[in-house]
Design goal:
DNA-binding; Arc Repressor Mutant, subunit A; single chain; D-Maltodextrin-Binding Protein, domain 2; 3 domains; HTH-type_LysR_regulators; alpha/beta
Length: 312
């Protein structure tokens, strides 16, 4: 069985065409003349055509060889460029990372970690998506993002959920609310009237619903009078005196909640777990793996907000 035709055959063909001599081409390619001759013979046999006309003085391209030379040069050039690109990506000189995160993660955790990453890898392109938990999981499943950082919304069997941080649930109220001066509040003390909630497609609402249905918390969360799709909108409603809400600590530790009061809830103490979400069986690119490693290191070196801690 003959050897398959590959890049080395094309490189040999191009060098012989340029040199017009097997001897000189063999020297440039660091091959013996017999090895080079055998390589060209394999290429001609596979093509079924004579690519060189050999004379006693020199080797010249046949008509078919003349037509094939620019094609061979383009193929070798494209292969060399593609290989160089792969090596550059492996060395993190190039590349692209797409990350999806819940609003609190994108606002509170990613910016400082990204600043550190950009200083180390300035050529890597980064795309960040801020979406609800269900959408984040679907984007990972569809390979639209390298990984997501959010709560475990639906425990998809095709996804891996690696715990990253935990934050405690609390009550968010205006600063002049009767409960605002409390150091903690029990779940049974949360007023059911004027309770604002995030929309059903968010991970926070989904988790609260599971807690309510299991009887872990004595609050119904299925039909609030007002629901909002993101924490920033929720903060605006609370500031206008339209109600209070239940949020994990990290979600309430953003600029839009300045001037409002977060009171940790106990009896029971309930925490949200934020995970790194990846698709099972899919390896991260070098750039994505480097960003994830930077994020983990960054979380280990910074002071997290009160009621927030790293997992593990």
């Amino acid at each position: 069985m003959s050897s398959p035709i590959g890049v080395r055959h094309l490189q040999a063909f191009i060098e012989v065409a340029r040199c017009g001599s097997f001897t000189r081409a063999a020297g440039h390619l660091h091959l013996t003349q017999s090895a080079l001759t055998a390589t060209i013979k394999q290429l001609e046999q596979d093509a079924g055509l004579t690519l060189f006309d050999r004379t006693t003085r020199r080797v010249i391209l046949s008509a078919e060889g003349e037509r094939f030379l620019p094609v061979a040069e383009r193929l070798v050039s494209d292969f060399t460029a593609a290989l160089a690109d792969l090596r550059a990506r492996a060395q993190l000189q190039q590349g692209h990372v797409s990350v999806a995160g819940s609003p609190s993660v994108v606002t509170r955790l990613l910016p400082s970690a990204l600043s550190q990453f950009r200083n180390q890898y300035p050529s890597i392109q980064i795309n960040i998506r801020d979406e609800s938990a269900g959408s984040l999981e679907q984007r990972v499943l569809n390979n639209e993002v390298d990984f997501a950082i959010a709560g475990n919304h639906s425990q998809q069997s095709e996804l891996d959920y690696a715990p990253l941080i935990r934050d405690r649930y609390g009550l968010v109220v205006p600063s002049d609310h009767p409960l605002a001066d409390r150091s903690s509040v029990q779940w049974r003390e949360v007023p059911n009237s004027n309770l604002l909630l995030l929309s059903a497609d968010t991970g926070i609402r989904a988790q609260l619903k599971r807690f309510s249905q299991s009887g872990k918390i004595p609050i119904r969360v299925d039909s609030p009078q007002i629901e909002v799709s993101n924490p920033a909108g929720m903060a605006a409603l609370i500031s206008q005196g339209l109600g209070i809400t239940l949020l994990p600590a990290l979600a309430a530790d953003v600029h839009s909640f300045a001037g409002l009061t977060f009171i940790p809830l106990d009896e029971p103490i309930i925490e949200r777990e934020i995970c790194i979400i990846t698709r099972q069986g899919r390896a991260l690119s070098p750039a994505a793996a480097a960003l994830l490693n930077t994020l983990r290191q960054h979380l280990g070196n910074i002071s997290l907000p009160e009621w927030v801690c790293t997992s593990g």
